[in-house]
Amino acid sequence: MVVLIGLGFTLWTAAGAIFNLITNSRCILAWSFDRVFPEVFGSVSESFRTPVNSLILTALISWVFLILYSFFVSVVSFMAGTTLGYVFTFGSTAIAAIVFPFRKPKLYKRSGADIEVRGVPLIALLGAGLLVYFALLSYALLTNSAFGMNSPLSLLAIAAFWLFGIALFFVFKWHQKRKGINLELAFNEIPPE
Q1: Structural domain of residue 190, as residue ranges?
Q2: CB of 127 closer than 8 Å to CB of 101
Q3: Last-in-domain residue among 48, 71, 94
C-alpha cells in the first residue's frame, strides 16, 4: 500500500508539473504577445510549434520551487497558497466572461463567442457558473485547515504572487509607454487567430 501511495504521489506531482508547464508557459506567451512581458517569450518555435522560450522559463522557475518545496517544510505551506491563487485567477477570468458581452458589446459580437441562450450570452452564463463553483471552492479551501491553504504563510503566498503580477504589469506598461506604445489599444481588439 505504501508503494502505491508513493507511486500515486509521484504521478500526481508529474501531472501537476505538466499542467503548470503548459498553463504557465501559455500565460507567459500571452503576456508577451500583449507586450506586458519581454518579447522573446512570445516567439513560437517553427520546428516544435510551441513557445519554447516560455516553456524553458516556466521549467526553470518550476525547478527552483520544486527544490525549495522538497527541502524546506515552510515552503510547502507557502506553495499550498498557490492552489488558492489559481482559483482566484480563474475566478477573475470568470468575472471577465460575465462582463465582456455587456462591457464590450461590439467586440463580443465579432468574437465568435456570441452565442445566446434565451437572450443571455452563453459566455456570461458559463462565467457565472464558474464563479459560483470557484466561490464554493474558495470557501472550502479557506475554512478547512486540512487543505493547508488558510495558514498565514499560504495567504501570504497568494498576496505576494498577485502583488508581484500587478506590479510587473505596471512596470511593463510604463516601459511600453516610454517607447510610445499604448497598451490600452491592444485590449480594444481581439487578436488574430
Answers
A1: 73-193
A2: no
A3: 71
